Amino acid sequence: MKKMMKGFTLIELMIVVAIIGILAAIAIPNFVKFQARSKQSEAKANLKAMFTAEKAFSAEKDRYSGLVGEIGFSPERNNRYAYFASLTGTNGGTTLENRQNIANGGAATDYGIEYDSFKYGLVAPFTLAAINADPGASPCTTGLPGISAGASPVWTGMAQGQVDNDAQLDLWSISTGNRTAGAGACASANANNPGGEPLVESNDVNQ
Q: Across the chain, what does the average pLDDT equal?
């Protein structure tokens, strides 16, 4: 007698394909979000390094500086974020350290570090100029990069980048002072932020 050859029916195969499609629809966005969150660790680590360099400079010179070369802050290449120790035209800074070529373009007037476009190129839909532009008004009203005026000045630094190719920039800040984030568009609304701890102001991953 001939043995019956058993197999899957078309309906069974279609059910399996549908299940795989559902799982993929759930897993892929979560994977992309996880990947973007892992990129944010760069901003947190480098902002802490900039804070440490600023505090060390302050301990020696008894003042803060808005120049990255003066405080000795120069993160490794492959940075997805642009970093700002102050704003252009303040604290003596007029340029960003150039990272569009093989060699670093550091200068005494650098108030920040460019996004490494030599490694990553342009990040759609933004131009290089948009990523390297001075941060606008702080969404958390915590102050912009640089040194505040007054008898007890506070220094603030920022990191700005594009980590998941949408129409939103990721913005982080760090300060020598203790802060409470404002409400509104702030990603960390009403959060208490001690000095030396990075604060996410505009969270690109959640947009």
A: 88
